[in-house]
Design goal:
Blueprint (H helix, E strand, L loop, with lengths): L1 E3 L11 H21 L5 E11 L10 E11 L2 E8 L4 E6 L5 E7 L2 E5 L2 H17 L2 H4 L8 H8 L11 E7 L4 E4 L13 E4 L3 H15 L17 H13 L6 H14 L13 H9 L9 H30 L7 H7 L1
Parallel strand pairs: 1-2, 4-8, 5-9, 8-10
Antiparallel strand pairs: 2-3, 3-4, 5-6, 6-7
Helix pairs in contact: 7-8, 7-9
Length: about 350
């Protein structure tokens, strides 16, 4: 069932990358609606943005998680990250268990942040967000297990710490996915998937089937399928709770952020590349996520002020770099001795 439909814009964004990202998310929302709209075992939330003051950002503002698509089921959840790809996106291992992503855009290869790691961070944010509100959302452990739970966990209140949150990275239908040097998705503690958008629903159903089959068999928390579950009414309650706490970013602010990134050329205040502007966009949007959550004209003014600071910092860095490069020419040894 669809607990939070996809929010369609009245007009497409002017920025080409934002437009492509919007189209990719809309496409996946269509696939999820087609497969799960009448499935009472699943709850789908599209474009969920959560704000949590208990998980602050590095700049001190409220913590924010922007989840492209969240699929809840009785035995856990899936965070689905949509990636807009018009040409080729390549993923390879980094030699230490991580993953490195590059994307070909307009004939050039450029590095992009790992969508797997991005979704994992969103998953941890979601887990913490739900755990601090567990008493509102979940009941106590089964009566016969309460004494044991109190001994082990110091409480008989059920929570979300052991909730399986799996990752799916959905590549848009127009893109080509290349796995370099035999890279494979992580499979521990649960399977992660990187696949084309039209395959996502099949992967989700496959994994839910594993959880459902294991649920009656597992009696201990061993990190495997079936360790955690919600009641049907709890599933609905969690979905409604999250949908009610969605905090959309003001569209006028989002447009101002993109224009700000364009003015700085996608550079951070240090002058370093910010992953095609993605990191800088996140930094600027973070300014909109403080306790007051400034909106409208005040928010746009704050973005303009922030951008001026960034541009000034960038120019200072350039000036310092130029002074380092334009060093005084080395004098002959005799002249150097005469100056000492």
């Amino acid at each position: 069932m669809i607990s939070k439909p996809f929010d369609e814009l009245p007009t497409l964004p002017n920025d080409l990358r934002r437009k492509a990202g919007y189209v990719a998310e809309k496409q996946l929302a269509f696939y999820l609606h087609r497969d799960f709209a009448t499935d009472a075992e699943v709850r789908v939330l599209n474009g969920l943005r959560l704000v949590d003051p208990d998980q602050p950002e590095h700049h001190g503002g409220d913590g924010v998680a922007q989840i492209d698509h969240l699929v809840l089921h009785r035995w856990g959840a899936f965070i689905i990250e949509s990636k807009s790809v018009s040409e080729v996106i390549t993923v390879r291992g980094d030699g230490s268990g991580g993953d490195v992503w590059t994307r070909r855009y307009k004939g050039r290869d450029e590095g992009v942040p790992s969508p797997v790691k991005q979704a994992e961070r969103q998953g941890q944010f979601l887990r913490n967000y739900l755990q601090t509100r567990r008493e509102q959302l979940l009941g106590q452990v089964a009566f016969g297990m309460r004494t044991l739970s109190k001994l082990i966990n110091k409480t008989d209140q059920r929570g979300f710490l052991n909730m399986p949150i799996q990752i799916v990275v959905a590549i848009s239908d127009t893109g080509v996915l290349e796995r370099s040097k035999g890279w494979r998705e992580p499979s521990e503690p649960f399977q992660t998937y990187v696949c084309k958008a039209d395959c996502v629903a099949d992967k989700v159903r496959e994994e839910i089937g594993k959880h459902r089959a294991a649920a009656p068999l597992v009696a201990v928390m061993n990190g495997k399928y079936g360790i955690w579950r919600m009641l049907e009414e709890e599933l609905e309650g969690v979905a409604q709770f999250l949908a009610a706490r969605d905090t959309p970013l003001d569209r006028s602010v989002e447009g101002a952020v993109d224009r700000a990134v364009d003015r700085t050329g996608g550079k951070s205040a240090s002058g370093a590349s910010a992953g095609g502007g993605a990191r800088l966009r996140g930094e600027l949007r973070g300014e909109m996520c403080g306790p007051a959550r400034v909106r409208g004209s005040a928010a746009r003014a704050l973005v303009r002020e922030r951008v001026l600071v960034l541009v000034l910092a960038r120019e200072l860095v350039r000036a310092r770099g130029a002074r380092v490069v334009r060093r005084r020419p080395r004098l002959p040894a005799s002249s150097a001795r005469g100056r000492t």
